[in-house]
Amino acid sequence: MRIKRREFVEILGGSIAGLPALAANSVARPLEADVQSVPASPITQKAFTVSGGGMMVEISSQGKIVGVVLAGKAIHLHVQGETALAECELRGDITSTKLPGGGVEFRKPIAFQRGYRNASLVERFLPTSDSVRWEIEIQGEDDPWATPIETRLKWPEAKSAKFWTSWGDDFSGKIVGKKDTSDPTLSQALRLARARDSSGKGWCDPTVPRAFREMDLEYGGHHFSASGFSVPIATVIDAARDSGVSLALSPEDTIIDMRLGTGADGSFTFSRMNNKICKDKPVRFAMDLIAHAGDWRPGLGWMVKRYPDYFNPANSTADDAGGGGAYSSFTGDLDAEKFKKMSFRVNWLASFDWPYVGMYLPPVPEGTEWTSWYHKTASTRKIDDYCRRMRADGFHVLCYFNLTEFGTAIKCPEPPSNVTNEADLWKDPNAFLYKKLAGNILYGEDGKPLWSWNDAVVVDTGDAAFQDYIVEQAARHVKEIPHCSGICIDRMDWLMRFNYRADDGVTWLYIAVGRAEGLPARSLVNSWKQTLSRIGPIMHNAGKAIFGNPHLKRLDLMREVDGIYDEIGYFGFNLNQSSFLGVRKPVIAWTAESRQLRPDPDEFFQRHLFMGAFPMVPYPENDHSIVSEEWADRFYRDYGPLLDELRGRKWVLEPHVITVEQGAAKANIFQTPKGYVVPITFGGKAASAKVVLRGSPVVAAPQEYKIEILHPGAGEWNVLKSLGKTPAGLIMTVPLRRGCAMVRLTHVAA
């Protein structure tokens, strides 16, 4: 549902020359006489200021942001901001309190729909060493209810500013929905992707800030829609004054649903929905206003430093397993050198050794054989033997896991069963489900179970019995398949759903439930978080990784997830959102068929290089994904050595760290275990590109690095000799072939 934003009063901003630098932390204080500004109305006049991280936030007596001062740049902007509850109004006076340490708190009594429900909204503005923290607390006073909780900001100079977020598509090119018929060889799936991607090429560069425009983006997106964002951050950039401000929301918050809306007038709104407002438990959110240079990178970099557990893999196993991927049932011998040349490193095991979805390791003594879903003989020892052989060849295996689907040929209502022995109950998926796990079946609003492929039912892992069961399955993987590198959890798309027969205590559905007063429910997002908090330590303490198939791409779901294996990653907007989730984690993007390399194979590989992501490789018995054919294999061999350099890469998120003069190509920079790599891409027919590095250790001491270059299909690395150091940074004149080159900067001590 699109949430309508209230109108803001237009106020023009300005700058103040010679404004003294502000301390990182200062007290909330009344209006200073020494700061001049554009006259403001009493409604928007500042009464308090809170300073932190080189920013001073001006706040009115009504608890609304009315200005921002960027100390380092001596810039004063009449930014407007507030948090409000949709369809609510004040029902009394607003009170303010100065807090110890320099903060200020506001209490606002509010009423929903002319007194239908009452609550208290508390907002706090607190100084920190690198931000101004903005906290929200809502305490209900009577029966539960819900309404969109909207945090709104408006930038005063919208026409000259640029906006950025972790979007899948910036909607800067062709009109969304326009069909692309330029290539008759495209599959239906790729045609759909292009029809919903504004670039017209299936991918647009998501690192370019754009002019403010009307957008409505969904947190987590949808795997068949470009209008999503994956990291809860909004950044405004004033390039002319090299300044920027980001609003970063905490992934630690309980977010049920959320949207980000923007307008051409410079406004943007985060709308949090379906949070239960009641007298028993307050609703709390936290976010930070961050001042930085005029680039999108430092805002996201701030989030990485502030919330490392959501961005960093728990151990190095994930980076070791990162590389070109497969999803295959093939367990025979491989030509290891052939696949290494194509950058292959990991197989998400699609052998379906389990008897049915959800019963991954039947409750039998270790080593006992059973009949798999493919009607083959399987056992944990056979699976582990395959994993051991793959490790010996330098590859990794991820076992299949799924938290949201169960069974095969499930019937409703429960059918009769011939199983009479409790120990054999697992052999009948219907009997096991209804006797052991009936409480986990997910029902729709119509009261009927939700179904998935092969007549499995969708399940809610928040159910206690099922959660204990699936956690026990994870523990057995660790014990009985020791050579497996971890698990990959499928079908996160079901996390968009709600369990209408349960109550997690924090979810309240207020729309489209057939009841005017709303309805309690359990969000499967919360079920996921609870279950992963138990599975994560089991896997990580054993040195194993957890990869996820993030059809729902939300940072708050990533705390225990070490790597991303995106099944719909061939859609450019999915690749983009997954890559922002994986700025410090390996990202593997699905390649469904060789036709997805057409019409321009170089463009296909170069967008993966630019985003620091690995494609799937042509592999024997790949399941609904690319298989070997010489035409495609050749391009994988050409780009395999370049992709290999991305293993263990981390995005460098320092401001202005890399540019290409005159926009002759695109370039990105990643830190690796041995130094840095710089993929230069999309150079077209240009013979070379001048790449400027700033701020990295390489610039300070280039003599401490061996700087080499490799082109697609070239085979050998060569020393890059065209280097120059100027006040602007380290300038590399990089020869291009097929519009591309990979520059490797290896520390001589590495």
Explain what you see.
With 750 residues, the protein is α+β, with helices and mostly antiparallel strands. The protein folds into 3 domains: 14-170 and 206-306, Beta-galactosidase, Chain A, domain 5; 321-400 and 461-496 and 525-644, Alpha-Beta Barrel (TIM Barrel), CATH 3.20.20; 657-747, no CATH class. It is 17% helix and 30% strand. The strands form 8 sheets. Strands 6, 7, 8, 9, 10, 11, 12, 13, 14, 15, 16, 17, 18 and 19 form a 14-stranded mixed beta sheet that branches. The chain has an 8-stranded parallel beta sheet with strand order 20-21-24-27-31-32-33-34. Strands 35, 37, 38, 39, 41, 42 and 45 form a 7-stranded antiparallel beta sheet that branches. A hairpin with a 5-residue loop joins strand 22 (370-371) and strand 23. Helix 8 (464-480) runs parallel beside helix 9 and helix 11 (601-611) packs parallel to helix 12. It starts with 13 loop residues before the first strand and ends with a strand.
What's the short version?
The protein is an alpha+beta fold. The protein is built from 13 helices and 45 strands. It folds into 3 domains: 258 residues, Beta-galactosidase, Chain A, domain 5; 236 residues, Glycosidases (TIM Barrel, Alpha-Beta Barrel); 91 residues, no CATH class.
